[in-house]
Amino acid sequence: MKIYNAFDNFRIPNCPVVTSGSFDGVHEGHKKIISRLKDIAKDNHGETVLITFWPHPRLVLEHDHKLKLLSTFDEKLKLLEASGIDHLIKVPFTKEFASLSSAEFIQKILIDKIGTQKLVIGYDHRFGKNREGSFEFLKQHAHLYPFDIEEISRHDIDDVGLSSSKIRRLLDSGNVNKAKKYLGRPYEINGTVIHGNKIGRSIGFPTANINIAEDYKLVPLNGVYSVEIIINRDDKVYKGMMNIGNRPTIDNHPSIEVNIFDFEQNIYNKHIQINFIDRIRDEIKFNNIDELKNQLAKDKIVALSSF
C-alpha cells in the first residue's frame, strides 16, 4: 500500500476505483466497501484508492473532545494495509477543507486530484460542506461527472445498520464480545508499559501498567477483562486478564493494568497491544488485600475459560 500525505507525490493510477471516509475502526461494514472496491478494480484492471481524513471531522468541526475513537491513525493504517488497498491518501481535515461544497469536493478532489473512474460509498456516507453531499446528490448530477457511482446499501452492510458509533456504544457499556463481532476481530488498545506500585507482584498477580499516549482513544468500560497480549509487536500471543478502573481496594488511582499469565519478563518501556476477549466482572472494592487476592484467583479461572 502506498501512503500519501494529502496529495503530495500522488500520481493518478490506471482506472482509479475510489472510496472516502473516516473508516474509524475499519469494521465489518468498512470491509464490505473495501471488498467491493477491490472487486471493481480487478474487473477493470484498475487500482484502489482510499481517501481518509485526519483528525476526525467531529474533533475539528464540533470540538467534540468527548468523542473517543476506535482506532488511532497508526492502528487504522495497519488495518487498511492488511485489507489490500493500493493507495491511501491521508487528507488533513481542517476548517478550510470542510468549507468545500460537495460540488467542489467532487471536482477538486475526486476528478482533478485523483482522476476517479469508479466511486464506491457506504449507504450513509456524506461529504462536502455541512454534509450536503450524498448518494442521492451524486445520482442527480451523475451526467456531470466522468465516473460511475455505486452505493453499498444498508442491507449489504448489516441489517441493523452497522456503524462506528454503534461499536463505540458497545465498548462504552463493556460489551467487547459483541464489538468483536462487528469489528471482525477483538478490539485492541496499544500503549507503553510503565512503572506502577508493584502491589500486584506482592500478592502473586504481577501487572504491567499501560500508558496510552492518545487521549482520544476509546478505552472500554471499567472492569476486569480476559485479554490477549502482544509485546513489542512480536508474533507471540499471551493470555491474561486486565483491570481498567481506579483500584478502589488499593489507592483509588486510575489505571489500566494487565496480568500476563505464565510470564516473568521485564517489559518496562516496551510497546504492548491488548486484544479484548470478554468482560469478566465489574471493578469491586474489597475489604482487604486477601479478599482481592482470592477474587483474582477466581478471575483467572474465568479468564482462561473464555479463550
- Beta strands, count: 12
How much β-strand is present in the residues?
A: 25-35%
The low-confidence runs, each spanning 5 or more residues with pLDDT under 50, are none
Helix vs. strand class: alpha/beta
Protein name: Riboflavin biosynthesis protein
EC number: 2.7.1.26, 2.7.7.2
Pfam family, one: Flavokinase
Organism: Aureibacter tunicatorum
Describe the model:
- The protein has 307 residues and is an alpha/beta fold.
- The chain folds into 2 domains: 2-162, HUPs (Rossmann fold, 3-Layer(aba) Sandwich), CATH 3.40.50; 174-305, Riboflavin kinase-like (Elongation Factor Tu (Ef-tu), domain 3, Beta Barrel).
- It has 11 helices and 12 strands.
- It has helices at 28-43, 57-61, 73-83, 95-98, 102-113, 135-140, 154-157, 164-172, 176-183, 199-202, 289-305, and strands at 2-5, 16-21, 47-54, 87-92, 118-122, 148-152, 188-194, 208-211, 223-231, 238-245, 255-260, 271-281.
- The strands form 2 sheets. It has a 6-stranded parallel beta sheet. Strands 7-8-11-10-9-12 form a 6-stranded antiparallel barrel.
- α8 runs antiparallel to α9 (176-183).
- The longest helix is centred in the last third of the chain and has 17 residues, at 289-305.
- The radius of gyration is 22 Å and the shape is elongated.
- 32% of the residues are buried.
